[in-house]
Design a protein that fits this description.
The protein folds into two domains: 123 residues, Aspartate Aminotransferase, domain 1, CATH 3.90.1150; 222 residues, Type I PLP-dependent aspartate aminotransferase-like (Major domain) (Aspartate Aminotransferase, domain 2, 3-Layer(aba) Sandwich). 41% of the residues lie in helices and 16% in strands. The chain has 14 helices and twelve strands. The strands form three sheets. A seven-stranded mixed β-sheet has the order 2-8-7-6-5-3-4, sandwiched between helices. A three-stranded antiparallel β-sheet has the order 9-10-12. α2 runs antiparallel to α11, α3 runs parallel beside α11 and α4 packs across α10. The radius of gyration is 22 Å and the shape is globular. The model has no long low-confidence stretch (mean pLDDT 95).
Length: 370
């Protein structure tokens, strides 16, 4: 079936990357097969979650794990778990937090929007958000002072390219300080599944990543961390977590994706991404009106992206104009345009085939050549 023909949908060339607004990732055949097979059967969901939790623990080095509807849901449920513990009465009381610790600290430079504000994900649990520091500076002294005020349920730490890239407290220091006050640390690492063991090794209590980004699975969120908190998080399915629960296809997809990652040759995968980056550079090198460079992933994941920098009016287009020109038409070409105001766009090659790369580069030539 051609879904685009059947439903009149716009075809997409994804030069942006693993983005929710582009429906996640292309699900790998091995994972799609497992998720599709799950649709033919009934399961004891608690048993299925226990099985995926074992694999999450194996891969991450954490004590336990589970699957949620997505990372955003995982943030809300993690906060809820820190407030209620394993007390079902408190679970059923949320989002009313009377009688519970309900202040959640987050460095102000981490208060990002990834489709909606991360602070809203926190508040959905009933918690009160306390932003610490200013946008481009948060000191240990400020975070310690906020902890000393008491009533702190958790600290949320965001590992993302969207955060302010300087002036904040690194995760290992956050963990050390939080634990000295007996406060758990929750890490939003949605696109950081390659770094999951590293993030767990910092001592963070719960780490959240997406199943539908570099793990190339069906939509879901993966939670790894301390068993007591994972169990408390899973208990939220009997409360506010009910509308955020993961279905069988999400759990089985995550299970298959994690198994795939265990045997994946990540070095070979990185080499393939480097080859595609080199292909883009080769195809665009003759365009004098642009400057080409390569940006490593800012969070340290094992791949890079092509940067295309344009000055105002070059080829009649600036970065914003090139983005819009590529987006026009069917298929639409969606580039990584977080930095258009700074005069550049990125091309993320991970989800592009060689044929799509050729098409994108041809369209860039057409857009910039009078």
């Amino acid at each position: 079936m051609d879904l685009f023909e059947e439903y009149g949908l716009t075809r997409v060339i994804n030069a942006c990357g693993k983005m929710t607004h582009l429906s996640g990732a292309i699900v790998l055949p091995e994972i799609a097969e497992a998720a599709s097979e799950s649709l033919n059967h009934f399961f004891l969901l608690d048993e299925l979650q226990a099985k995926v939790g074992q694999v999450i623990a194996e891969i991450s080095g954490a004590e336990a794990g589970c699957v949620t509807a997505c990372t955003s849901a995982g943030i809300t449920l993690s906060i809820a778990a820190c407030m209620t513990g394993h007390d079902l009465a408190k679970v059923l009381q949320l989002p009313c937090t009377q009688g519970m610790k309900s202040r959640v600290l987050i460095q102000k430079g981490h208060c990002i929007n990834y489709g909606h504000p991360v602070t809203q994900s926190i508040r959905l649990s009933g918690a009160n958000v306390v932003e610490v520091g200013v946008v481009n500076r948060c000191t240990v002294e400020e975070l310690r002072y906020a902890l000393e005020q008491g009533d702190v349920a958790a600290i949320v730490h965001v590992e993302s390219h969207h955060t302010v890239r300087y002036g904040w407290i690194p995760l290992p220091e956050v963990v050390q300080l939080a634990h000295s006050f007996g406060v758990p640390v929750i890490v939003d690492g949605a696109a950081q599944d390659h770094r999951l063991p590293t993030l767990i090794a910092t001592g963070a209590d719960l780490v959240l990543v997406s199943a539908h980004k570099y793990l190339c699975s069906t939509t879901g969120g993966i939670v790894a961390g301390r068993k007591t908190l994972v169990d408390s998080l899973y208990l939220q399915n009997r409360g506010i977590g009910r509308p955020m629960k993961a279905g069988k296809e999400a759990i089985v997809g995550a299970l298959a994706a994690l198994r795939y990652r265990q045997q994946e040759d990540v070095a070979a995968w990185t080499a393939e991404q480097d080859r595609k980056v080199a292909l883009i550079l080769e195809r665009l090198q003759d365009l004098e009106q642009i400057r080409l460079s390569v940006d490593a992933d800012p969070n340290g994941c094992p791949f890079s992206r092509v940067r295309i920098t344009l000055g105002p009016g070059q080829g009649g287009l600036d970065a914003r104009g090139l983005r819009d020109a590529l987006a026009a038409g069917d298929p639409t070409i969606v580039v990584r345009a977080h930095h258009v105001d700074e005069g550049y766009i990125n091309l993320d090659a991970i989800e592009m085939t060689d044929a799509e790369i050729e098409h994108v580069c041809r369209r860039i030539h057409e857009s910039l050549t009078p």
